[in-house]
From TrEMBL:
One of its GO terms (biological process) is L-methionine salvage from methylthioadenosine. The record marks 162 as: Transition state stabilizer. GO terms for molecular function: S-methyl-5-thioribose-1-phosphate isomerase activity. Catalyzes the interconversion of methylthioribose-1-phosphate (MTR-1-P) into methylthioribulose-1-phosphate (MTRu-1-P). Also catalyzes the interconversion of 5-deoxyribose 1-phosphate and 5-deoxyribulose 1-phosphate. Part of a bifunctional DHAP-shunt salvage pathway for SAM by-products. InterPro entries: IF-2B-related (IPR000649), IF-M1Pi (IPR005251), IF_2B-like_C (IPR042529), Initiation_fac_2B_a/b/d (IPR011559), M1Pi_N (IPR027363), NagB/RpiA_transferase-like (IPR037171). PANTHER family: METHYLTHIORIBOSE-1-PHOSPHATE ISOMERASE. Gene3D superfamilies: translation initiation factor eif-2b, domain 1, Translation initiation factor eif-2b, domain 2. This is Methylthioribose-1-phosphate isomerase.
Length: 362
C-alpha cells in the first residue's frame, strides 16, 4: 500500500542485488520508515522473533524468504533451517503453513537446484498472499457498502483491534483490505483504532498506515470500544486473526475476545478476515488447543515513545518490583463471530461452512 503516495510491499527481494531481502522494520514505526536488508536466515529469524516483521501472513512469507537465503549458503541444511524458523513464534499458523510449503517444494530436489527453487516458491507465497488479501477486500466491501446505504451522508464507523493491514501481510491486509477498498471507492469510512496494548500495534502501526493512505481514523484506548458500542458509534467490528480452527474459533491479539463480547452485547456485527493460510483444520477447540505465546514482561512494564524534543525514549510505567504477565493472544469462540471474510467469500464461523468452503483442506 502507500507511504507518501508510493506503493510498497512489506517484503521483497532487493532489486539492487537480486538476492537479499528487504523488510520494513516495524519496531521503528511510526517515527521512522526504515527498511531492513536481510542476508541470511538468522537475521530473518531475529526479525520475526523481535517483531521487526510481524503479522501472521507476513511472517509466513518472511520465513519462506529466510529459507531461500539459507539455500544460497547451505542447501543441505534445509530441515534444520526450517525447524529454526518455525520455532520463532508459536501462535500464528501461517508460519508453519509457509515452512511446510517450502519443505514440500524443496525436499525432493537436488541440493544444487534448491536455491533457485526456494526463491521461486517464496515469491509464489508472497504473490498468493497479496492476491488473497485483495480478494478478502472485495468480499468484505459489500458489508461496508450495505451499512453506508442504510445511513446516507454519515460515516461508516469500523472498529478494529491490533494491526491487520498491509503491514501485517505482503499487501492490502486482511481486516483493513475492505476498508481501503471502501475508502478508494469514495465511501465515507471512519476507523476506530484500538491502541492494542502492550505493544501498541494499533496506535503505532494501524494508525500509521491508515494515515499514509488517507483513511479517516481515531485512536482509542483499548477499553473504550465497549462504551462506543453502547452509544451507537460502532457499526461493525472487523479484525484479523493468527489462527482459525476447523470449528471457527479465532485466535487474535490479546483483547479481541473482550471486543467480541461487547459486540454481542450491543448487537454489533463482529467479522473476522482471514486468508486460507490462517486456517488450521488440525485444531478443533481453540481455547484448549492453540498455543498462546507469552512474551516479555518488559512489553507491559515499559513504554517507548517520542519526546517533545524528538528523542525516542523507553520508560517504565509499572511499580518497580511488580511483576507482569504478557499473554500475546486470546481466543474468541466461534459463537461470538458473526462471520468470516475469506478470499473465497463470506461464510459462517462453523465447521460445516468452513469445510464446504475449503474441501481440499485436510
Amino acid at each position: 500500500m502507500k507511504i507518501d503516495g508510493i506503493w510498497y510491499r512489506s517484503v521483497r527481494v532487493d532489486a539492487d542485488d537480486g538476492w537479499s531481502v528487504r523488510m520494513l522494520d516495524q519496531t521503528k514505526l511510526p517515527w521512522h520508515v526504515e527498511w531492513l536488508r536481510l542476508t541470511d536466515e538468522a537475521q530473518v529469524a531475529h526479525a520475526i522473533r523481535s517483531m521487526q516483521t510481524r503479522g501472521a501472513p507476513l511472517i509466513g512469507a518472511a520465513a519462506a524468504y529466510g529459507v531461500a537465503l539459507a539455500m544460497r549458503r547451505d542447501p543441505a541444511a534445509l530441515e534444520a533451517v526450517c525447524a529454526k524458523l518455525a520455532a520463532t513464534r508459536p501462535t500464528a499458523i501461517n508460519l508453519r503453513w509457509a515452512i511446510e510449503r517450502m519443505l514440500a517444494a524443496l525436499r525432493s530436489l537436488p541440493e544444487a537446484a534448491r536455491a533457485a527453487a526456494a526463491y521461486a516458491e517464496a515469491a509464489a507465497i508472497a504473490e498468493d498472499d497479496a492476491a488473497t488479501c485483495e480478494a478478502i477486500g472485495r468480499h468484505g466491501l459489500p458489508l461496508l457498502q450495505a451499512i453506508a446505504a442504510r445511513k446516507p451522508n454519515q460515516p461508516v464507523n469500523v472498529l478494529t483491534h491490533c494491526n491487520a493491514g498491509w503491514l501485517a501481510t505482503v499487501d492490502w491486509g486482511t481486516a483493513l483490505a475492505p476498508i481501503y477498498m471502501a475508502h478508494d471507492a469514495g465511501l465515507p469510512i471512519h476507523v476506530w483504532v484500538d491502541e492494542t496494548r502492550p505493544r501498541n500495534q494499533g496506535a503505532a502501526l494501524t494508525a500509521f498506515e491508515l494515515g499514509a493512505h488517507g483513511v479517516p481514523h481515531t485512536v482509542i484506548a483499548d477499553n473504550a470500544g465497549g462504551h462506543l458500542m453502547q452509544h451507537g458509534e460502532v457499526d461493525i467490528v472487523i479484525v484479523g486473526t493468527d489462527r482459525v480452527t476447523r470449528n471457527g474459533d479465532v485466535a487474535n491479539k490479546i483483547g479481541t475476545y473482550l471486543k467480541a463480547l461487547a459486540a454481542q452485547d450491543n448487537g454489533v456485527p463482529f467479522w473476522v478476515a482471514l486468508p486460507h493460510s490462517t486456517l488450521d483444520m488440525r485444531v478443533a477447540d481453540g481455547v484448549t488447543e492453540i498455543p498462546i505465546e507469552e512474551r516479555s514482561q518488559s512489553e507491559v512494564t515499559d513504554l517507548t515513545g517520542r519526546t517533545k524534543d524528538g528523542r525516542i525514549e523507553t520508560i517504565r510505567v509499572v511499580a518497580e518490583h511488580s511483576p507482569a504477565a504478557n499473554p500475546a493472544f486470546d481466543v474468541t469462540p466461534a459463537r461470538l463471530v458473526t462471520g468470516l471474510i475469506t478470499e473465497r467469500g463470506r461464510i459462517a464461523a462453523t465447521a460445516e461452512a468452513i469445510a464446504a468452503m475449503y474441501p481440499e483442506k485436510p
